[in-house]
Every structure is written in structure tokens, then in C-alpha cells.
Specification:
Blueprint: H1 2-23, H2 27-45, H3 58-76, H4 84-87, H5 92-100, H6 102-110, H7 113-136
């Protein structure tokens, strides 16, 4: 309890000294102090820009960066993305359609397989013939 009374006595003495020093300040200094106080209060009232606000843009920035990388990868090869389907023969999609069709698979299993082997060989031979002709010409 003695600390409380000492604290109170100190606070009263400090307040008295400050009041006396304020009463001896000229008008020009008081005006400048008041202007500084008003400026400080106005600065506190204005919302300050938080340091974390740019972090809100991180997902957007990441998405744009991923998009830019994807565009660069596509256009680096002349805009042509090669997939196994486009690299194969022109009949690749037709073969996939036949494999996906149950009726065509049952028809192929029930009938003569040698015909289908002959047709596949002819198709491969016909596809290879224009390539060899264009290479020699």
C-alpha cells in the first residue's frame, strides 16, 4: 500500500510541474504544439495501409503466373501440342471407336480374323507407300 501512496504523490507532483511549464509557454509555441497534436490525431484516424494487403493478391498472381507458363509452353513449340493420338495414323480415332463399340468387337471375334489382319496390313502398306514416294521424290 505504501507503493500506491508513493505513486499517487509522484503523479500529483508531475502534474503540477507540467501545468506550471505549460502556463509559461508563449502563444506561438502553443500554436505549433496544437497543430502537431491535431496532425497526429488526424493520422491516427486515417486507416493505414496494412502490410499484409498485398498478400491478398497472391492467389491471383499465382494463377496468372501458371497461365503464363502454360502459354509459353504451348507457343514454344509453334502452338502445336503433340499427343499420342495426333502423332499416330489418321485411322487411330477410328480404331478407338471400334474398340469402344461392343457390337463391332463381337462381330470381329465371330468372323474371320484373317480378313481383319489382311485389311490392317493393307492399311499399313497404303499409309507407308505415300511416305516412301514423297521421301524419294
Amino acid at each position: 500500500m505504501r507503493a500506491d501512496t508513493e505513486h499517487t504523490v509522484f503523479a500529483e507532483r508531475a502534474q503540477r510541474v507540467l501545468e506550471e511549464s505549460v502556463s509559461h509557454i508563449d502563444a506561438h509555441t502553443r500554436s505549433r504544439l496544437n497543430q502537431a497534436r491535431q496532425a497526429a490525431l488526424a493520422a491516427v484516424e486515417q486507416p493505414q495501409r496494412a502490410a499484409w494487403r498485398p498478400m491478398k493478391l497472391m492467389p491471383v498472381t499465382g494463377a496468372l503466373a501458371a497461365f503464363a507458363v502454360a502459354v509459353l509452353l504451348v507457343f514454344q513449340h509453334g502452338g502445336q501440342v503433340k499427343t499420342p493420338v495426333t502423332e499416330g495414323s489418321a485411322n487411330s480415332l477410328e480404331v478407338l471407336d471400334l474398340l469402344a463399340d461392343d457390337e463391332a468387337m463381337s462381330l470381329m471375334e465371330d468372323s474371320d480374323r484373317s480378313f481383319y489382319e489382311w485389311a490392317a496390313d493393307e492399311s499399313d502398306g497404303a499409309a507407308a507407300a505415300p511416305d516412301s514416294a514423297s521421301a524419294s521424290g
